[in-house]
Amino acid sequence: MLGVIWGGPFVAILHRFNLGKQIRAELMDSRHVQKIGTPTMGGIMIILPAIAVTLALNISRIVEAGEGRSILLPIIVLIGFALLGVIDDWEGIQTSRGEVGEGLSGKLKFALQILLALSASSAISYFEFSYANSVHLPFIGAEIPLPPLLFIAISTFIIVATSNATNFTDGLDGLAGIISASAFGAYGVIAFLQEQIYMVELCFVIVGACFAFLWYNAYPAQLFMGDTGSLALGATLGTVAVMTGEWLLLPIIAIVPVMEILSVILQVASAKLSRRFYGVDIRPFRRTPIHHHFELGGWSETQIVQRFWLIGILSAFVGVALALL
Q1: Do residues 44 and 216 touch, judged by C-beta distance below 8 A?
Q2: What is the pLDDT of residues 36-64, one digit of tens each?
Q3: CB–CB of 212/4 below 8 Å?
Q4: Closest CA to 182 of 169, 194, 168
Q5: Any bridge partners for residue 142, and if so which?
Q6: By the 8 A CB rule, do 163 and 236 touch?
Q7: Which helix (H) or strand (E) element contains residue 316?
Q8: pTM score above 0.90
């Protein structure tokens, strides 16, 4: 409700300052051209209410010493990756206006993601939260503790990978928001089963914030999430998965972002290897991330979003079911 109420004025402010979306060169000849100039950095509409409401709900737990203070960690991750996304979005807008600066390079952006994720992983390991530092094995029902260094390495990879996978998913109106909401909803249920009430609150507050954002991001979008939202949501989802100890289920619960990032990896690897060994450019997809492959195959934008959402909802249910085993 808060998001929908202040969303209209927020969109107007972004329009006023000309904070518009720019389109990649390879998409300039497609239906995406009409989206040029649509306000971006819409992730602010998700991040600010989520932080404010979560802190308000957990103020007593934060003041008191105890396990409840662990809610601060995913909030810090949310803020840290959101700030990185804001910088990247802003630099991209400035560059598109022809102003001095090249924006964040891919290498610098990736290095900063690793630094933030490594800091979060180290903190999780150091404070030894209830379900962190271990992994739950479905079907077997066992909780396997992990050595600190191994846990930190795995956790860092998960946070960075999920952040980038969600970023790749943010390419069609409504897609990243609805997939993120489904995944956070699943982990909210898992946290409830573990009686991590503070984590339940965070997950479902983010679900609500994503729904408010989708009010303005549904096709045809009035607002785009940008890296501000996608990087932050993905990193926070990875953090929640690690802190519940159910990170083995993340590739199932977040199957759509996983498909998106794997399609990019396969496309690049196939092109490089085929050119090197066969002298020809072999690519398994028409264009990546994979939602563009289906676009070029004749699917409409709404068809792709709705079908990917069905896959995301089903995989979220499967993930919750496996967490019960």
Answers
A1: no
A2: 778 888 999 999 999 999 999 888 777 77
A3: yes
A4: 169
A5: 137
A6: no
A7: helix 301-323
A8: yes
